[in-house]
Design brief:
The protein has 302 residues and is an all-alpha fold. It folds into two domains: 109 residues, no CATH class; 143 residues, no CATH class. The protein contains eleven helices and three strands; from the N terminus they run H-H-H-H-H-H-H-E-E-E-H-H-H-H. The chain has a three-stranded antiparallel sheet, covered by helices on one side. A hairpin with a 4-residue loop joins strand 2 and strand 3. The radius of gyration is 26 Å and the shape is elongated.
Length: 302
């Protein structure tokens, strides 16, 4: 190789480096514009995470997504990138719905468009191969979008009545006299109201989020299905333990046990208890799930 060839190869290398730098700069600028476009949505979204306990799990979702993508970093570095017209289509449709919903004050849609526009942007800039690797972490961001209060209200009332009825039955099994009317429990010395916050809906949303995360980490499909579909019953069971336990304590110590710090602490304790059950289920399914998977394959050979 002569000096001319060496010089030409160096020039080509420099041109490629310059081209790559321009592409990276354009990508960074595009993502910054995307983040700035949704600035009006961020304050209310963060306020909902911090001030509404039903949606407090949402603040963890971006962190979980970032961690899941970070775990894929080696695979992403080995994957070739390209532009995708489908990604651009998803992006522009999402931006359109964002502006329409923001003008119309439809908060849930404008917040959801943060996720869908990000999916479109990633798909457009890096191509389908990259998107397929991180599609779950990106779609997982939908859990950060708070459920509308109207839907929470519709779901909470049946759960309140269910928790009240079953708790009254369990309390009566302990020979404690209790009378139920609607979502109220009446004891000899006090009364207890099973409010919307005690419906179990709060923990249910968090348990579904965690159940789907555990399912993604697991490698066998039977275990994945079991842990996802068991998230709701576990949340209901944990909440039932809370309401029943609070009712028993209220009979002996009065209604103060269902107020203030004790009420909030019991909620955290029972959630930790339910999370422990869900994590234990994950460990068991992760250990014995492959055996279930192999047994299914032997019964239904392809």
């Amino acid at each position: 190789m002569n000096a001319y060839d060496l010089g030409e190869s160096n020039d080509n290398f420099c041109l490629r480096q310059l081209k790559n730098m321009k592409i990276r700069l354009k990508t960074i600028i595009l993502f910054l514009f995307w983040a700035a476009a949704f600035y009006p949505v961020y304050p209310d979204l963060v306020s909902t995470w911090l001030n509404h306990s039903d949606n407090s799990h949402g603040i963890l979702v971006p962190l979980i997504t970032a961690y899941l993508i970070w775990q894929k970093r080696e695979q992403l570095l080995k994957t070739s990138t390209s532009n995708s017209k489908w990604g651009a289509l998803v992006f522009f449709i999402s931006i359109f719905f964002y502006f329409v919903s923001f003008i119309g004050a439809i908060a849930v849609v404008s917040r959801a468009m943060i996720v869908f526009s990000l999916i479109g942007l990633v798909w457009f800039n890096f191509g389908g191969a990259v998107f397929s690797i991180i599609q779950f972490p990106l779609l997982y961001l939908l859990f950060m979008v708070p459920v509308p209060d109207t839907i929470l209200g519709i779901l909470a009332l049946p759960l309140q009545i269910f928790a009240t009825k079953l708790s009254a039955f369990l309390i009566q099994l302990t020979t404690i006299p209790v009378y139920r009317e609607g979502n109220m429990l009446y004891f000899v010395q006090t009364q207890l109201e099973v409010t919307e916050a005690c419906s179990g809906l709060r923990s249910m949303m968090a348990f579904i989020m965690l159940g789907i995360l555990f399912a993604y980490i697991m490698k066998n499909w039977p275990g994945r299905l079991i842990i996802v579909f068991s998230a709701i019953p576990l949340a209901i069971f944990a909440n039932l333990v809370r309401v029943t336990g609070t009712g028993i304590l209220a009979h002996f110590y009065g209604g103060k046990v269902a107020q203030g710090f004790l009420h909030d602490f019991s909620g955290l304790a029972v959630f930790a208890f339910g999370f422990g059950l869900l994590f234990l289920e994950y460990l068991l399914l992760n250990r014995f799930g492959p055996k279930l998977d192999r047994s299914n394959q032997s019964v239904n050979p392809e």
